Amino acid sequence: MYGYFDPYGISVMTNNEINKIENEIKYIIRQQTSNSSTQASSTTSSNTNGSSATENEKKKSLLNYFLDSLADEDTQHVKKQSSTLNKILNDEFKTYKKLAGHFVSTSTDLHHSLQFWKTNKSLLPNLAPLAQKYLASPSTSTKSESAFSMSAYYGRKQRARLSSENLGFSVFLKDKLSNEN
Question: Domain check: are 60 and 26 in the same one?
């Protein structure tokens, strides 16, 4: 997903990859919306279920009828809300692609995806929080790979006479000396 939220990354993705990620984003946002609406409805239902068990059957059936009608309205509301959310997200995806294309064609530096999102977060309110989440982690592990490759260099068979303690000191000193430059 990191590549999708980077304007340069999305510019080299295939339509199939983009569609797959957009479907995942729709699923994530739907889950977030349903979780928040479930919490609200559980609060409401806990307030309505507090009726006493000694009510007669006629009142219970009327109450059940009423609650069922509310559930039907909620179901219709959720379906309508879902289709509205899909339309909003599809429009936002189109807007993002246009803005990303414009950004890639006009920007001179390849490392400004965070600047892109800072500038356009008001135009992309559903995508911006996800972009912030996914762009917060680095897309590569170059620093850690570099440390391991340096220790592998020192630990080669040609240098096998180094004790483990001397090997550790060599890697440590190499790291500290290269940071001073």
Answer: yes
Between CA 31 and CA 121 the distance in angstroms is 21
* Contact between 87 and 29 (Cβ < 8 Å): no
Determine the structural domain holding residue 106 and report its residue range. Answer: 2-45+56-135
Q: How many domains does the chain have?
A: 2
Residue 152 lies in a domain: yes
Q: 51 lies in a domain? A: no
Bigger pLDDT: 155 vs 87 = 87
Contact call for residues 24 and 1 (beta carbons, < 8 A): yes
Tokens of 42: 């559980």
172 and 120 in a single domain? The answer is no
Q: How many CB atoms lie within 10 A of CB 35?
A: 10
* Residue pLDDT, tens place only, 51-67: 444 444 455 667 776 66
CA 38-42-43 angle, to 5 degrees, is 120
Cβ-based neighbour number of residue 65 at 10 Å? 10
Q: Does the model's pTM come out above 0.90?
A: no
Q: Tell me the two tokens of residue 4.
A: 């999708």
